[in-house]
Every structure is written in C-alpha cells, then in structure tokens.
Amino acid sequence: MAKVIPRPQLSFWENIYFVEIFKGLATTWGHAQKNLIKGDFPTRNYPDELPALPRDYRARHRLMKRPDGTPRCVACFMCSTACPARCINIVAEESDRLDIEKRPAKFEIDLLLCVFCGFCVEACPCDAIRMDTTLGVMVADNRADFVINKTTLMDWAPADYPATDTQSQKAPGGSLHAQALADFNSGNRH
Ligand code: SF4
Ligand code: SF4
C-alpha cells in the first residue's frame, strides 16, 4: 500500500522566502570565509588536474590479453547481446589455434552510445573485457574517433595495473608473463 508523505507546513517567514534566501547566503558566506582563512580551496584545476579514479570505477574498456598477446575474447557475443546500448560491434573469425575455436576479427565499441553500465563486463564468461582503465575522460574532435577498435582496446601495459592483478600480469610485459606463456604453450590457456 502506498505511503502518504505529508507536505511540510511552511511558516509565514518561510513562505515569504526572504529569510530563507539570507540563511542560504549566510551558509555560503560561512564556507567562503572558512576557505579564505584556511587558504585551502576544495576545488580541482580540472581538466589540467584529473581526479585519481579507483579501479572499480567504470571507465573506458580494455580487452584482456593472453600470454601470447592475443585477445582473451572468444567472440561469443555475450557482451554485445547484454549491451543495452547496442554499441559493441564484433566480427568473429576462426582461431588459428586448435584449442581455441573463435577470436574477434573486429571488436569495436562506440563510446558515444555506451552508457558505461558495465553489463558487458558482467556478461563476459572469460574475463576478456574490463572497464578498469581509469580513463574517465575521453576527448575527440569528431564522432568517428569515439568508435574504438580492437587495437586501441588492447593497447595497455601490465605495468599500469596492480601487481596483484594476476590476469593483467600474465600479458606480455607483465611480472608473471614468462611462466604464463610457458603454461599457455603447453596447453593451459588461462
Ligand atoms: S558498458 Fe554497457 S553500454 Fe557500454 S559497452 Fe558495456 S554493456 Fe554496452
Ligand atoms: S568480450 Fe567476452 S563476452 Fe564479449 S565476445 Fe569476447 S568473450 Fe564474449
């Protein structure tokens, strides 16, 4: 059953607004005085100074890499099926490895359509797509540049990710790469 929330009854002084306006101005002036005295303004020189975003912030996507540098993506289309904005465009092709069926020949994301919901990351069965790049500011001077392709999505270095992120460290250049590549070539794909 719906709960009725009564409207607050305003007093005469609240109804004429003037007192409330001056109360608001007093609060603003109080904060300004405090900042002036402390000399510490809680403002950021944006965009020259970018905020440090946490890893779980849903930022620009990246495609995870196998130890041999190929994408972990198996072109299953689960991400593009889950995507509410229909902004993931994948073209699948046969893999040249006998133990891997498919790989993406083309993998594009239109960032202008993307709503950064993270459903693609949730839907992926093999941790092949992540949104942990902390690239929260994307700038381009034409619409086509907002469509990012497989090369851009795979252009990341393990050094930019925490040492505890084992999946990233297994990629070429990562701290766990040598052993991971040996395992991969011996048939252990993950
Ligand atoms: S974050 Fe959401 S909208 Fe963007 S590509 Fe992934 S599923 Fe689609
Ligand atoms: S990124 Fe994941 S969900 Fe999307 S096609 Fe590749 S393997 Fe499938």
Q: What series of H and E elements makes up the topology? A: HHEHEEHEEHHH
The 3D shape can be described as elongated
In CATH, the architecture of the domain at 62-157 is 2-Layer Sandwich
Helix-and-strand structural type: alpha+beta
CATH top level label of the domain at 62-157: Alpha Beta
Low-confidence segments, given as residue ranges, are none
Overall number of strands:
5
Mean pLDDT: 93
- What's the assembly state of these chains? single chain
The proportion of residues in beta strands is 5-15%
**Count of helical regions:** 7
What's the main sheet like? 3 strands, antiparallel
Radius of gyration: 25 Å
Q: Order the strands across the largest sheet as they lie in space.
A: 2-3-5
CATH domain fold name of the domain at 62-157? Alpha-Beta Plaits
Key words describing this protein structure:
190 residues, alpha+beta, Alpha-Beta Plaits, three-stranded antiparallel beta sheet, two-stranded antiparallel sheet, 7 helices, elongated, binds iron/sulfur cluster
